[in-house]
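Tutorial handout. Part one gives the primary structure; part two gives the three-dimensional structure as tokens.
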Amino acid sequence: MRQVDTKFIRDRITQLRIQKGVSEYKMSYDLGHSRSYIYNISSGKSLPPMAEFLEICDYFEITPSQFFNDATENPALLQSAIEELRKLNDDDLMLVISNTRRLNKDK
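Part two.
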């Protein structure tokens, strides 16, 4: 199992923030903190406590597991797709799976 260090957490927040297209200031403001809150995390001056970490995950619309899985390029987009798939009945879900397999063969 890979050990997660503080640099990973800082870098992952930065990566997800950039993917979302928001500045450090905007994200800090959206989370209800001073303008330097995310800057302090990104620069290594501080780390968020657990409750704040969970709020950051909610902000990015991902689960904590998805936060730590950096193999997924855009976890928020994947999470959105999963939520939509959950709404489908079995027949439609099988159709989506079939089409996804066909698309993946073409790559």
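Part three, for discussion. The two ends are 30 Å apart (CA to CA). The domain at 6-105 is CATH 1.10.260.40 (434 Repressor (Amino-terminal Domain)).
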